[in-house]
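Note to self: the last two entries modelled the partners one at a time, which told us nothing about the interface. This time every component goes in together.
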Amino acid sequence: MAIDKSLQTGSTGLLLLRLLEEQDLYGYEMIELLAERSNNVFSLKAGTLYPLLHNLERQGYLTSYERAAETSKVRKYYSITPKGNRFLREKESEWGHFTDAVNRVLKGGSACVVQA
Amino acid sequence: MLSKPETEGTPKEFAVYLERICGQIRWKKAHPSIRRELSGHMEDQMAEYISAGIPPEEAARKTIQEMGDPVEVGTRLDHSYRPKVDKGLLLAAGLLLLAGWFLQSVFSMPRITLLAATVLGISAMLAAMKVDYTIFAMSRRTGMTAYFLYNAVIFIFPVFYRYDHQSSYYLIFSVAVHLFLLFPLVLCGVMYSFRNQGFSGFLLCGAMAAFSLFLMLMVRGSATLVVLISSLAVMVMALKMEWFGPFSKGKRAAAYVCMFVPLGVFFLVLLANGKVHRLLSIILNPSIDDRNRGYIYIVFRSVLKSSQWIGPIDSVATPWGNFPLEELLRWNPDWILIWTVARLGWWTLCVIVPLALLICLKGFHICQRQSGELGKMISCAVVVTLAAQFLCFLQANLGIVYMIPYPFPFLQGNRSIIVNLLLLGFLLSVGQRKGLDEPAPDKNSSDFLYVKQPLAFSVRRSGQEIDVSLKLRLPEGKRHGPKEKDIPLKPD
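The predicted structure of the combined assembly is written out below.
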């Protein structure tokens, strides 16, 4: 199912930080992993991904380093920083409150618990 | 999941596409790294399409389409890479400059030279930001040339000073003394060019630093103290970052011994001569030397004792009667802070000292958050040089230990303003780049080395043991260390 782009806006950074919390990744891996985990709902374009990654790095949420992959091709890997981890926790909590509120409204005011 | 067949070469369209992206990014030094990263991504994407059975030309077209509009992508990347000047740091330095202007107008000092110094200093700061701190990523030849030229300049001035220090050479002497403040940056450049040279590289850099400091000591001891503190800071940092190579614990301890033991011996010699003992005695009881340094201590302490929180004091009572305050600046304009406290009140210190503290904290923050090692070194050199000047000036003006200090950075002293704004420019250039100009560190570099072809392979037998060594051509850029290296191999 295609998702309205406006729903993704602002949450892409959160998704990337969540992926990087598990392991260091390079850009192409992130796109593939994101598509795989979301059953192809999130198909991020490289033109969106890299400016976002570079921005997160400038803000100190990520660091990067170059490493030769198995194919001996040198790739730029991204790694989450402690500051990025704290930011992720905050954003996860915000997202939980937001989706909870949206679900409450959609369900006509009945209680709905959403995991943060 | 992610092992993709590699494409044979990069299509020409990719280069055109990447060129259009880079065309939107104003910071040109970021281009190679962005081009490399995006090119790698496009190659992966194209390989994926080809493995799905799409012909190469169609795969290249689809890859570019998948990447998005180059102007839009480039513009967004340009936003990420826009240099961000540390406004807090700039504001604190600007406020100190304004405070200097205020003091000059209050005390009716000549302002035309201050105006010229401020204009020149701001130009120097902007030039340093434009040139960028990566200028100190020197090759061996450039590093050594910079070192010898620098020493030639500071060696010539002491000779002039010795023979004619009362004449117009004072101007040249004063310029030389302020040039000392640039030494820690030169030392960073020299040490950068000696990276991976082992313990001998460290010793050579240390000897060169000691020689320059000795020349400075011939001119002015208090100035040398500031440079010594910042030089030690950058050398300790170079050892911590393993610039000379990974040292064992023993070698690292030996390096610290080489740095600090000669200093200890120097102070012990002073102590043995009784100079330190006499200095301490005068500090504790200035009246034992009431014709020289002791007199100054007595005057300073009397002025500070009489000063009020707000407002001027009318007179300063000393053992010799009332002291005329105007005498202070006639002795030396560097006593401006104590004079300010006397004429305006202690509140002036409560404005000036926090601004100096803010500059130091901001500088340390820039240093601490750097991922690039050269940026870390340069910011450390600048911030320790500034902090040492602040401290020496404050303690001298508070009558703790007598010395002729450097003027308070950014507040006074025309030559001081120019040199310190230049230093600030380099600090700001580090802050706005955050190490992105430097090659990204490779986490695996210490574990694996890919060698295309060894230059020589030698086996040497000594008794029961066999030494095996390999001569390699190292895959380093033109600015990085030696091209060849002998590596001993362990039998296992």
